[in-house]
Model the fold of this input.
Amino acid sequence: MPKAPAGTLYRGREGMWSWVAHRVTGVGIFFFLFAHILDTALVRVSPEAYNEVIATYKNPIVGLMEVGLVGAVVFHAFNGLRIVLVDFWSKGPRYQRHMFVAVGVLWVVLMVPFVIRHLSHVFGG
Amino acid sequence: MTTVAPNIPAPRSPRRLRGRTNTELYSWLFMRASGMLLLILVFTHLFVNLMTGDGINALDFAFVAGKWADPLWQVWDLMMLWLAMIHGTNGLRTVINDYAERDQLRMWLKVGLYTATTITVVLGTLVIFTFDPCPPDAAADLLPSFCQAP
Done:
C-alpha cells in the first residue's frame, strides 16, 4: 500500500504521545520478559548457576535499570487502564486527557516510595 | 427528450463479508482483559519481591525455592508467564504488522516471534512444575531452610 502523499494522521499531544509511550514501554518490557524467564529457568539447572547469574545483576547500573523497568511497567499498567476506560466507559474519550494526567500522578505516587526503597537496597547494600 | 438511465453495475457482496472472522475482535478484547489481570499479578509480584523484606538483595535460589514451595505462587507465576507472554506477543504482532511493510519480512518476523514465545512459555511452565527446591547434590547453605540435611 503506498504511503499517503501528503499530510499525516499523527495529531501529537496527549493522545498520540501516550500511544507512542505505550508501544515503547510495551516492547521494552516484552524483551525484558524473555531475559527474565530464561534467567529464572536457571533454578532448574542448579542453585549455583542461578545465584551466579543473579549476582551479576547486583550492582548499581542494573539497579538503576530496574528503576527504569518498574517505571515502564507502572506507566504501561496505568495507561492500559486509561485505554480500557476510553474504550468501555461512555465518557472515556471525552476525559482521555484528564486520565492521562491521572496516569502521571499515579505514576509519581507509586514511583517515589519505590525508588527510595529500591535504591536504598541497591546502594545501601 | 428521454433520459438514459446510467449503467450502474449490480452490487457485489462486499469482500469483508466473505469468510470474515472475529479474530481481531477477540485479540482486542484479550489485550484489555489480560492487561487488567496482569496489573494485579505484576504489581503484587513487584511488591513482594522488591519492596518487602530485603527487597532485591534477598533474591537468590533459596528465595525462589521458598516461594514455589507454595502452590499459590506456582499458580501465580504460571498465570503471569502465560498471560504476559501472550499479551506481549500479541502486542509485538501488532507492532510488526504496523511497521514491517514487505510481506516476506512481516511473515518471517512473526514466525520468529511465535517460535520464541512457544519455546519460552513451554520452558517456563516446565521449570515451575519440575524444579526441585532441595536438589540432593547442592550445598546446604544455598537451599531454603525447609530442606533437611541428608
